[in-house]
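Notes from the 1:1 (GR / supervisor)

We went over the backlog. Supervisor wanted to see one worked example end to end before approving the batch request, so GR pasted a single chain during the call. The sequence is below; no edits were made to it. Supervisor asked that the structure be written out right there so they could see what the output format looks like.
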Amino acid sequence: MRSRIKSVELEILAAISGIFIAFQSRVNGELSHQVGDSLTAACISFLSGFIVVSTIAFSQKQIRSGLLQLKSAVSRKEIPKHRLLAGTLGATFVAIQTYSVPVIGVALFTVASLAGQTVMSLFVDRAGLTGGGPKEMNRPRVISAAITVTAVLISCLDRLQLKEFSLLAVILGLFAGALVAFQRAFNGQINEFTGQSFATSWLNFLTGSTFLVLLFGIKSLFGDANLPTSLNGPAWIYLGGTIGVMYIAFSAKIVQQIGVLVFTMISVGGLLFGSLLIDIFMPTKNIGVSAFLIAGIVLAYLGVLVSGQSRASRR
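Structure output shown during the call:
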């Protein structure tokens, strides 16, 4: 009985971790609105996360050891150097997120990015980028990808004729999700050598922050990027990076107890449900919730469940 109660508690925490990520989208989107530039907002979010994860990483001996093990693996050429740049993919995701969420809302961006991730995961697995050799594109996973793409189309149906609707933001959401599929594959390989999720995350934040700062520098030279002279807006809009670190801490702990599959199913449910609640109670400007959007969210989760059942059947 006690073990069952503990299992339920962990599943609730898994759902909350998904809601964290939905809230992160809203936070970063509002930050972009306040500072007036999505790249600047992405830099602030990633750098704040880098400071938090660095504080954690360098206070833990096992995390430092994990980074040294990764360095040795690179020296032995056991992992290609370009795989260490997985953080740049995450940084690009955040940059797209900060641009798209104020335009199309948290829920539609979440559905679009989930669809992009589901579709691209088929090709990532087929190429064997996750390790363990190539994996076949079985029918349930192809159906899952088709369902999530259909969910995006349904979510957009009532907005297509609206003047303020941005198809570009939806396409960017799909692209951002596709990048996540590659990032997770590369991080899986990195984690095999570090053995520590925070060591892998520290490397992600390092490379991602460096990438964004370089982009900001280039934009400053040839464009109109400028650092904000003051930090305006409520304090919560600067929590994007910290929320990302909290998600890492939650997921690393919970996955060990309930497994990757169960955690994924529940956390994605929390992500989709949380994104809907945020668009209802904390909407960005001109973003409404329609029956089409709700249907798209339900369909997207159905796609995730189909994919999850496929993975479970292979065990």
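Supervisor's comment: The radius of gyration is 19 Å.
Batch request approved.
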